[in-house]
């Protein structure tokens, strides 16, 4: 389950704002793929809702 894995990672100190090569943070992907529960979890862990990727898109 995506939620359980994300929760485990965040509880153990993973950075919710870590950026990949495309400038995406996990919140971009959770939002794009419709994982509302994971997106909410990321926001609760202070993921940047205004983060812009390399194409200037926000989550």
UniProtKB/TrEMBL annotation:
Record-linked InterPro entries: Ank_repeat_dom-contain_49 (IPR051637), Ankyrin_rpt (IPR002110), Ankyrin_rpt-contain_sf (IPR036770)
Pfam families according to UniProt: Ank_4 (PF13637)
Domain of life of the organism encoding this protein: Eukaryota
TM annotation in the entry: none
Record-level GO cellular component terms: cytoplasm; nucleus
Gene Ontology molecular function terms on file: NAD+ poly-ADP-ribosyltransferase activity
ANK repeats: 1-21, 22-54
Keywords: ANK repeat, Repeat
BP GO annotations: positive regulation of canonical Wnt signaling pathway; positive regulation of telomere capping; protein localization to chromosome, telomeric region
Record's protein name: Ankyrin
Organism listed in the record: Rotaria socialis
Taxonomic path: Eukaryota, Metazoa, Spiralia, Gnathifera, Rotifera
